[in-house]
Amino acid sequence: MRKLFLILSLLIMVYSCNTTSNKIEENPFFSEFNTPDGVPPFDKISAGHYLPAFEEGMKRHSAEIDSIINNTEAPSFENTIVALDHAGRMLGRVSATFSVMTGTMSDSIYENIDKEIAPKLTAHYDNINLNQKLFDRIKVVHDDTTSVAKLTTEQKMLLDKIYKGFVRSGILLDAEKQARLREINKELSDATLSFGQNVMKETDSYQLVIDKKEDLAGLPEDIIAAASKLAEKKGLEGKWVFGLSKPSWEPFLQYADNRSLREKLYKAMYMRANNGGEFDNKENIKKIVSLRQEKANLLGYKSHADYVLEETMAKTPENVTNFLEGIWKYALPQAKQEEAELQAIAKKEGQDIKIEPWDWWYYAEKVRKEKYALNEDEIKPYFNADNVREGVFAVANKLYGISFKQRTDIPVYQEDVKAYEVSDADGSKIGLIYFDDFARQGKRPGAWMSSFRKQEVYNGTPVQPLIYNVGNYNPPTEGKPALLTLDQVETMFHEFGHGLHGLLSKSNYHTISGTSVSRDFVELPSQVMEHWAFEPEVLKMYAKHYDTGVVIPDELIQKIQNASKFNQGFMTTELVAAAILDMKWYTKTASPNFSSKNTEGLKGLDVNKFESDAMNEIGLISSIIPRYKSTYFQHIFSGGYSSGYYSYLWSEVLDSDAFQAFVEKGNIFDQETAKSFRENVLSKGGSDEPMVLYKKFRGAEPNPVYLLKNRGFVK
């Protein structure tokens, strides 16, 4: 029996080895993708491929780093800086492809892979960033002033970014502090991952189930149909389900007559990850804030905000605070005036209530109808998602001469995703862009742009970018296409602006290509695109009734124009409040709560009280909450916007001034201006300082008055 057991064991081992070998050979990540245009072969990639691919990717990346270190030639820009820029291509392929799955198709399988690989990736990059021999070579190149003087501006920016990246990662610290830094990075990796997964789980798990038709009073038919379709997916035929994705909860708040249900859904939205239990984020927040503060102190900075902002246009927390306070003084009074209007219309309708946050959208919609005769139900039929996308393409074509052709031969990761080939005016191929527009289970809330492959020049060969845009719009319902709100139309234009930044990049180096710019400059290309969305000339290009094909009439265009500054007090106040909350979390240094190792000093901190105190301090009115409350503020606790949420407004100063350049020419498609914006901003990536790039386009620094005018705060 024992002999039989040994034979069976041996056979199993041999079989396992052969299976593993076969899996490695079959793993699509182990070689360059053999697909049209080198796109990810989603039809061949399975969840089981990721862990082995991550492991192999790290192994190859480490070997490439060793090759740089062991190069017997004297350190040079080419054999050290460019070699470092080129290293890690396989790992980059795996990470980029995995990112879209965890962001848009997440489930327990991907969550578990993420949990397993995140600490390994953190340790891997720490091993590179804290490699003294590697840094010694970088430093030789950096300190050779004679050779540096011969580099191009782009090459100097690459060298500076890599050198500073190592310094800011702790290479100059002693061994003890580096060891602590590694611990901090690992704990931060765990905490930020947990934060994001908790938000997604709480978002996906909640459902408001309605079984009485009278409780749907006030809701448009397409919203009711979407809720019915969602209920069917959840096995609740004959009922209606509303969830915590924005396309679901926001229209309910906007239209539903049932105030108690509005309150119930709204509170569920803003209490995400703040309900105690397994998915509560308050401990994660305390841990993240404490660890980031300790890391900043280790690296010689007063606060995490000081550390982050050093590499931005704003430079210091004081500059950000002054900037936000300058907008706040316009936004809050306007919001109070708007609140009074809402209160008046509620009273007029016989409602003896005080306007609460769950009332704002509902009564604001009534004010919009009364004041501007604009009913979003009336205009949504003209904003078929497919037509809006074609409108975005048409604007890009008129500005930059580029064209788009759908590719049905490109494998996609989900059946709703569409891929397009992008060509320049001369017919040459630029790259590809994917659109993943619709909300679904397992998709992170919000909208974003990213890439499967960035533009660069690799060993003398141009590499074309593979970009993707993600949205969270309500999908088509039976008999009707996906119809977008004005806000969603603006979002599609916004994310496509990011897409253009990635597509039209002309950088030589991966590290500074495309959107690899400071956080408060990266929103310029996206936000400037929003300005074209509702221009009358543009609306006539794409806003066509989904059923009749009739172009949107002039009277509706005029209503949209008239209401363009409607509710801007509210929108600006909630945005600035969130940006201030971000800065409050990351500039708080005086209290011992924020300087203790790990989270010991934070045990007594009440996260909700900290937030409410911060909002009371700035005078936020009770009918408005920050755009993101702390426990689901993914931008600053699990995304890349910690101490950076102000960037949307900072960039708005730039984009408002940039669009004015077209207005001054009397033509929003002025070719000379568009060419200058493409050449000096969109194509440059991080190849020069942001303000230098902007001034080359505009001829001067931006005038902030145009932001105030666009939001209706000044005439």
Structure description:
This protein has 715 residues and is α+β, with helices and mostly antiparallel strands. The chain has a five-stranded mixed sheet, sandwiched between helices. Strands 1-2 form a two-stranded antiparallel sheet. The chain has 29 helices and nine strands. It has four domains: 166 residues, Neurolysin, domain 3 (Orthogonal Bundle); 65 residues, no CATH class; 172 residues, Neurolysin, domain 3 (Orthogonal Bundle), CATH 1.10.1370; 244 residues, Neurolysin, domain 3. The chain is globular and about 85 Å long. 57% of the residues lie in helices and 7% in strands. The N terminus is likely disordered. Strand 7 and strand 8 form a beta hairpin.
Give the biggest beta sheet: 5 strands, mixed
* Cα separation of the termini: 92 Å
Silhouette: globular
Number of distinct beta strands? 9
User: What's the average pLDDT?
Assistant: 94
Strand line-up across the major sheet: 3-4-5-9-6
CATH architectural type of the largest domain: Orthogonal Bundle
Residue share in helix: 55-70%
Radius of gyration: 26 Å
Structural class: alpha+beta
Beta-strand percentage range: 5-15%
Low-confidence stretches: 1-22, 590-596
Number of helical elements: 29
CATH domain topology of the largest domain: Neurolysin, domain 3
The CATH C-level name of the largest domain is: Mainly Alpha
Give the number of domains: 4
What's the topology here?
Elements: H1 2-26, H2 50-69, H3 77-86, H4 89-104, H5 108-129, H6 132-143, H7 145-149, H8 153-168, H9 175-205, E1 208-210, H10 221-233, E2 240-242, H11 246-255, H12 259-270, H13 282-298, H14 304-309, H15 317-348, H16 357-372, H17 376-379, H18 385-400, E3 403-407, E4 418-423, E5 429-438, E6 448-453, E7 456-458, E8 461-463, E9 466-473, H19 486-503, H20 523-533, H21 536-542, H22 554-562, H23 568-587, H24 607-618, H25 634-637, H26 647-664, H27 671-682, H28 690-698, H29 705-710
Parallel strand pairs: 5-9
Antiparallel strand pairs: 1-2, 3-4, 4-5, 6-9, 7-8
Helix pairs in contact: 2-3, 2-4, 2-5, 5-9, 6-8, 9-13, 11-16, 15-16, 15-23, 18-19, 18-21, 19-20, 20-26, 23-24, 27-28
